[in-house]
Design a protein that fits this description.
By secondary structure, this protein is mainly alpha-helical. Helix content is 77%, strand content 0%. The chain contains 16 helices and no strands. Helix 11 runs antiparallel to helix 16. The protein starts with a helix and ends in a 10-residue tail after the last helix.
Length: 405
């Protein structure tokens, strides 16, 4: 096939990722809901934790059965589940159970199955640009929080009303229709497909072709898995608590402006995903991971300065820097799996590494509990720093397997 086709497919892959990434917009979604219900920060944050767990489970199940079905089927099923989940969430009353089930369980699961289908399919079209294509697709996933968050905020004012329920219904219909349309353009290349590569460029070959069992027996996998848990945890804590952090410092700032500032995390997260994906392709994992951790520390220090001084400008810069750093984690998950353990078993190995989010998602709930106990988001920032330190310790055990001759 003409190499141009793969970029057309990639465009629709980005659109899919943009839509299914709305579960990352929870920080913005939660404010109008919280204003209309007498729930604690912990109860609200639990929705995000449930969504992340379901997301991982969905991706893992999709990986096991992907060989039996076309990736197009997963995208269509995802649209149907999103429709059902958001309609259920829109019926939420005094109890958060419908929200947990609709947005958390069903929405998270729907996002997980389509995420794996899109990533696995595009990985096959771009064996020569694993880091870059991961970054491009995940840019769409990350930008979802900003774009969809802005739309949601405009449609769902934080005035204590239940307008957010109608917005959920509209989103349900849009997700179903657009995902079904995009599914038409998600196709798998033939076994004989090879991209047109410049004669001067040598495509980096995987270090091994490992089954999931073989992969999980290596120390490098477990060191990276822990690294991914704690660094994902840093990013998820920032995403989930960003609205509250910005509001604590900018109490007089309007909800629309708060949503814009919080959205900067998504914008620079998207930019970071492309940057770190390309950096991985050129420099490998060591420089990529070290730079990620260093930038996260800078973000935490900026946010500490913002809380101590009341400077909203530092909040803006801290969110930009933190979002950029968080952009490293997800494309590196994909690139590490492909580069260290090969592409043959990628559809299963990838969601296995992504299951780190099941553990990492609890950090956002822990951060909310710390806030409920302390009344300040300073505890959130210190938690972020501790997690980065743990990541630096396990970093030294992450080593690329020796390529077989």
């Amino acid at each position: 096939m003409n190499g141009l086709y793969r970029w057309v497919y990639a465009v629709f892959g980005v659109i899919i990722m943009l839509l299914i990434g709305l579960i990352y917009a929870w920080s913005v979604f939660s404010r109008p809901i919280g204003e209309s219900r007498p729930w604690s920060s912990t109860e609200l944050s639990l929705t995000f934790t449930i969504a992340m767990i379901s997301f991982c489970i969905g991706g893992l199940i999709a990986g096991f059965i992907m060989k039996k079905f076309s990736p197009r089927i997963f995208i269509i099923v995802s649209g149907i589940l999103f429709f059902a989940g958001f309609m259920l969430a829109s019926t939420t009353g005094d109890s958060p159970v419908s929200l947990y089930l609709g947005f958390g369980v069903i929405g998270g699961f729907a996002s997980g199955i389509s995420y794996n289908a899109a990533m696995s399919t595009m990985s096959k079209w771009f064996p020569d640009k694993q880091g870059l294509i991961s970054g491009i697709l995940l840019m769409g996933f990350g930008l979802s929080s900003f774009i969809i968050g802005k739309v949601y905020t405009a449609m769902s004012p934080s005035d204590g009303s239940d307008q957010w329920q109608n917005t959920f219904k509209i989103f349900a219909v849009v997700l179903l229709v657009v995902l079904v349309i995009c599914s038409i353009f998600i196709v798998t290349p033939g076994d004989d497909y090879k991209p047109a590569v410049s004669p001067k460029k040598v495509t980096r070959q995987p270090a091994s072709e490992s089954t999931t069992g073989q992969m999980m027996k290596t120390p490098s996998f477990w060191c990276y898995y822990i690294w991914a848990i704690v660094l994902s945890g840093v990013g998820l804590v920032l995403v989930a608590q960003a609205n509250g952090i910005a509001t604590q410092v900018g109490a007089e700032v309007s909800s629309g402006d708060i949503a814009t500032v919080v959205g900067l995390i998504s914008i620079f997260n998207g930019i970071g995903r492309i940057f770190f994906g390309a950096l991985f392709d050129k420099k490998g994992h060591k420089i990529t991971l070290l730079l990620c951790m260093a930038i996260f520390i800078v973000s935490a220090l900026l946010l500490i300065g913002a809380i101590n001084t009341g400077s909203f400008a530092l909040i803006i810069i801290g969110f930009i820097v933190g979002g950029f750093a968080y952009g490293c984690v997800t494309p590196t998950n994909s690139a590490i799996i492909s580069d260290f353990f090969g592409r043959k078993h990628y559809p299963i190995n990838f969601p296995v590494i992504n299951s780190n989010l099941i553990i990492a998602s609890f950090f956002s709930t822990i951060a909310a509990s710390l806030y409920d106990a302390s009344g300040s988001y300073m505890s959130t920032i210190f938690m972020m720093i501790i997690l980065v330190v743990v990541g630096f310790v396990v970093f030294f055990g992450i080593r690329r397997p020796k390529a077989k001759a």
